[in-house]
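Reopening this ticket.

The earlier resolution said the output was attached, but the attachment link was broken on my side. Pasting everything inline this time so it's all in one place.
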Amino acid sequence: MVLNGALFLLFCAAARAGAAAASGGDGPLLNGNFEHKPNRCHMNGTRVMGAHAIPYWTVTGFVEYIESGAMQGDMVLAVPEGKHAVRLGIESSVQHELRVTRGKYYSVSFSAARTCAQSEKLNVSIVPGDPPGELPIQTVYTSSGWDSYSWAFKATQDVVSFVIHHGDDQVDDPACGPIIDAVAIRTLNDPPHGTSSNMLKNGDFEEGPYITPGSSCGVLVPPMDEDDASPLPGWMIMSDSKVVKYIDSEHFRVPHGSRAVELVAGLEVALVQEVDTVPGSTCRMEFSLGDADDRCAASPMIVQVATAGGSKSVAYNSTGMGGFARDKLDFTAQHNRTRVVFYSAGYHMTSDGTGTLCGPVVDNVSLVCVPQPHARRLLR
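Inline output:
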């Protein structure tokens, strides 16, 4: 018994020593899906008691290791990927060390599922780095009970720590909080600055957050303004608490290339980019609107397209089975900076009765502006 106890303690110490290994590169983080179990010497039931009990992670506060099928009262807790995940209670966090390249931009994606009735919020941060950013998870966009989110940062050091923190203290149950799973990272390549054939950056949305292969739900991009690093380089998401969905051609119908954006939150969110223009220039913005082949049927879907120099409502009759139409907006630049805006003028759900939020797809956006003496060639 003494020998077995000594071996047990030695095993725990060895596991703890190996937990600090850093990781980086594109794809899932080391043990990003939490399938490598905590050491039972650092567990009390489902609660993780040791800071380094989960391989490659550091935990603080009330953190639980959840297995698929676990119950909370009469509710089955949703595990987004595989058989295991973690649940963040009040004032708790999980932290993962990353090896990155100083000065480069990265997007981190992860899945989150609510487990309590109150408005839950998550803070994500990079240490060292900018102050934490808040991810609103009050709205559930899919019928599965969980959504995948993305968040971006610029690396200021070669080794940083990614932290997901839950700090809601408005409830009495210290275990009450969201489930976290499927954490991954992707290096964001800065798209080239606008050219004469397209003044917009990343107008085809090919550069964006990591999407887990086999995941059919896309990745949500939260609100951010021009001061934030964006998981969609070149673009801002303007909203108080709503998101857009980043989708891929493996699981959805995409008008052009392999990536696009679905406007899933109606009037409450806008897709925005600002670009340098010469006042008085004649401009043409062309774009594709469609549906993602996700049973988002509406006749019509209305997308509002706007700039300071003009706007228009574009109708697309969707059967929910895929397809798109090409359209354009002609306008005259009014200022040195022109903001282009896309938003859905309506709210939509898939026709399968699951309550999954959906909307029109935007893709392949281009903007060309020329001085007035040369405007005829643009408008041909």
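Reporter confirms the inline version is readable. The two ends are 88 Å apart (CA to CA). The helical segments are 2-17, 375-378.
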